[in-house]
Amino acid sequence: MVLLARQSSASFELDSESWQFFPALTAAGLPHAFSLRTCGIDRPPPVRELGLDPDRLVGAEQTHGNGIAFVERPTPLFYPSVDGLLTACRDVALKIRVADCAAVYLFDPEIPAVGIVHSGRNGSEAQIVKKAIESFRSRWGSPPERLIVQVSPCIRPPHYEVDFVQQIREQALGMGVRDFFDCGICTACHLDRYFSFRAEKGVTGRMWAVAMLPA
């Protein structure tokens, strides 16, 4: 990716009109981004700004479950029946789309390996973040204490009746994650920057969470 955020103590940075970045991931050297509402409802975010080919992003069906796929090559570009994508391949870029659910980034800088999971109410109840952490350990031997876990903007109380970010936090910390970061931003509170399926009654767009390993 070309655009990388500067290191900061803030919860996030806006380094372009279209993307925001998370300082914990930037400091760890992970190329990543999270798109903003300014990208528009009816068109995909401008991933070419990040140095990515939009036709080479690997995505998931996102069925609100806890299925996870290991991506070992740039194709296929679509994984059905899963809500999480993990990879240790440097020529793979991952994509998860959200409107109120959380995109949760996971990064082991030592392997290196990266993942993004889609975790809303159902996914959090199905413990997809815990499953992803277990998958890092079983696949690559990544101890949870070495992982960096970052939660994106998502809907939160009082705009939503379930605090699924707390469930995500409990899963991560319960597994032994030490570096857990939550941007603390509610999508429904900031409709100028983010889409919210709940607040906009389903007539809205999607933010993209993207990540790939450094070259």
From TrEMBL:
<dbReference type="InterPro" id="IPR038371">
    <property type="entry name" value="Cu_polyphenol_OxRdtase_sf"/>
</dbReference>
<protein>
    <submittedName>
        <fullName>Laccase domain protein</fullName>
    </submittedName>
</protein>
<dbReference type="Pfam" id="PF02578">
    <property type="entry name" value="Cu-oxidase_4"/>
</dbReference>
<keyword id="KW-0862">Zinc</keyword>
<dbReference type="InterPro" id="IPR003730">
    <property type="entry name" value="Cu_polyphenol_OxRdtase"/>
</dbReference>
<comment type="similarity">
    <text>Belongs to the purine nucleoside phosphorylase YfiH/LACC1 family.</text>
</comment>
<keyword id="KW-0808">Transferase</keyword>
<dbReference type="GO" id="GO:0005507">
    <property type="term" value="F:copper ion binding"/>
</dbReference>
<dbReference type="GO" id="GO:0017061">
    <property type="term" value="F:S-methyl-5-thioadenosine phosphorylase activity"/>
</dbReference>
<dbReference type="GO" id="GO:0016787">
    <property type="term" value="F:hydrolase activity"/>
</dbReference>
<keyword id="KW-0378">Hydrolase</keyword>
<keyword id="KW-0479">Metal-binding</keyword>
<dbReference type="InterPro" id="IPR011324">
    <property type="entry name" value="Cytotoxic_necrot_fac-like_cat"/>
</dbReference>
